[in-house]
Write a structure and sequence with these properties.
seven-stranded mixed beta sheet, 32% helix, globular
């Protein structure tokens, strides 16, 4: 985005605008802002995955700098549902925003545990809003609309302002039998359509998919039939927050005479939140993880994290045979009851290959009916547009091809589409909607509690070391700058332990320092830079690489 424009342009105090800071033009990291008469409302605050193009950044969050600079005008953060890409970043970013949080009962229960783990439970205030409730955060009047999704209690948001009504759908689908919770409230959506909707900001994830997304009830029937016919140990991986799926797996296990154990912290946290909110009442307590390995193979089913190939997940440890409590091998089955989030394909396929190498049978949604999407396919989008009849459509939650296909569909249904991406300031009113400004956006990597700029020095250095290696030199000099003894050089990842190159590099460093003019040898920085230059040149000549070089100097 144009930083100069964002800094130089005064912000209007009498308009209605939509400003996506994450999740528009990409999958995940949803962070949306509405501006009305100078006040700001944030909707969702989620994580994304680093992917192979960002080594060392397993989890990413949107950069909230623009919003945090204006937090005095931020009336609140509203969470639409409990998926990680919509609330997973709250614990990381709330210290920068420090605003009230509003969410439904289940999302509140999940979020309280995350904030507690981050040590923020006493500071971050969560107000639980009843399902279908109303909330006034002047100048915004908010109504929550029940929608079906692959997590309990997902809600769309009707945002009423003096400039008009905006429907922010969040994630949704039209499932006649979602198993947990009620179907999407089509009557409420039709009522909004009668009232008049200025703009609909709508999920685009499955805008390329014709037909209907399918029902959780169909997945339940198939899982019961599939698991009943399996021998050996069975593992099923799915999104932790898909409680209907977790319940279906548990019921399938019961029908097959198997006991169930949960593997993965996020699954255990979600289970606790679910039981707190009255879900899973008909499911027996799960077998503790440390006891699961003692059950007979044909009597065990485990539900585990790791459906997206996360390297530290329970399933990844099982595939690597490093899990302390369980092992899978010949005669066992692993079912991926999930989809591949774009960007995670390589990690997931490698995980599946590792499991197959151990002798496991691997089942996926490509060959068995074990998953349906939580997002609307094109027939469902058509139905929503018929109900809501918005004047303008703003596709979000997808990569550019999803947004453009959604826009084309909206246009064919008589709605004017407006394509935006992260950082665009879309003025919705007064006047005809248009992109009028830009604000700075970016991504931050989560690094053991720290937030690091994706293009910053730490991660840039990691990438450089990954591809070009690192050279570390240590040398001692006397007060006049003469080298004492022999410098020590190590180059992990560039040379083997028995290679003569490090000793030769050390000799090059000693010679270069000795040949420096005596006046320069008195300056520590000059000595370090001379040593770095020698090492860069020598390694470049030998390996055609430009490693990171660190020189430790001791003056005696």
């Amino acid at each position: 985005m144009n930083d100069f424009l964002a800094a130089a342009s005064p912000e209007p105090a009498d308009d209605l605008a939509f400003i996506p800071l994450g999740g528009t033009g990409e999958i995940g990291m949803n962070l949306n802002v509405y501006r009305c008469d100078g006040q700001l409302l944030a909707v969702d605050c989620g994580i994304g995955f680093g992917g192979p193009e960002n080594p060392g950044a397993e989890v990413m969050v949107p950069d909230p700098a623009w919003l945090s600079e204006r937090r005095d005008r931020l009336v609140g953060l509203v969470i639409t549902h409990a998926h990680e890409d919509h609330l997973g970043a709250v614990a990381y970013l709330w210290p920068l925003l420090r605003c009230p949080i509003y969410a439904g009962p289940f999302a509140s229960a999940v979020l309280r545990r995350k904030l507690g783990e981050a040590g923020l439970a006493a500071e971050a205030r969560i107000t639980t809003i009843p399902l279908g409730g109303r909330l006034s955060l002047s100048p915004f009047d908010l109504e929550f609309i029940r929608v079906a999704h692959s997590v309990p209690e997902a809600q769309a948001l009707a945002i009423r302002t003096r400039h008009g009504l905006v429907l922010h759908t969040g994630d949704w689908k039209l499932d006649p039998d979602p198993l947990i919770g009620r179907p999407t409230d089509e009557a409420a959506l039709a009522r909004l359509g009668e009232e008049g909707v200025l703009a609909m900001v709508c999920d685009s994830t499955n805008a390329l998919v014709e037909g209907h997304s399918g029902s959780e009830a169909e997945v339940r029937r198939n899982l019961i039939a599939i698991i009943r016919g399996l021998k050996g140990r069975v593992a099923v991986t799915c999104f932790a927050t898909n409680l209907a799926r977790v319940e279906s797996i548990a019921l399938a296990a019961r029908a097959a005479g198997r006991q169930v154990s949960l593997f993965g912290r996020s699954l255990r946290n979600v289970e606790a939140a679910a039981r707190e909110c009255g879900y899973l009442k008909d499911i027996e307590p799960f077998v503790p993880e440390e006891e699961a390995g003692y059950l007979p193979d044909d009597s065990l089913l485990i539900i585990c994290t790791g459906s997206q190939g996360e390297p530290r997940s329970a399933l990844a440890k099982i595939a690597a045979d490093t899990h302390p409590s369980i092992a899978l091998g010949e005669g066992d089955t692993v079912i991926f009851s999930s989809r591949m989030i774009p960007g995670n394909e390589r990690a997931i396929l490698k995980l599946q290959d590792d499991l197959a190498r151990r002798g496991c049978q691997v089942m996926t949604a490509d060959d068995h009916m074990v998953h349906v999407s939580g997002h609307p396919a094109r027939d469902e989008l058509r139905r929503l547009y018929a109900l809501v009849r918005p004047r303008y459509a703003v596709p979000v939650h997808g990569e550019w091809r999803h947004l453009s296909e959604h826009a084309a569909l909206a246009k064919s249904l008589g709605t004017t589409p407006i394509l935006v991406e992260d950082g665009d300031v879309l003025r919705l009113a007064p006047g005809r909607p248009e992109v009028v400004d830009g604000v700075p956006t970016g991504r931050l990597a989560v690094d053991e509690g720290r937030l690091l700029p994706l293009q910053g020095g730490v991660l840039a250095a990691r990438k450089r070391m990954l591809f070009n290696g690192v050279v570390i030199a240590s040398l001692a000099v006397d007060s006049s700058g003469r080298v004492l003894g022999e410098p020590q050089v190590s180059a992990p990842g560039l040379f083997d332990g028995g290679d003569r190159a490090p000793a030769e590099l050390a000799a090059d460093v000693a010679r270069a320092v000795t040949e420096l003019p005596s006046a320069i040898r008195l300056e520590d920085d000059a000595l370090r830079e001379a040593a770095r230059a020698v090492l860069r040149k020598a390694v470049g000549r030998r390996l055609r690489k430009r490693p990171s070089v660190e020189v430790h100097l001791l003056r005696v």
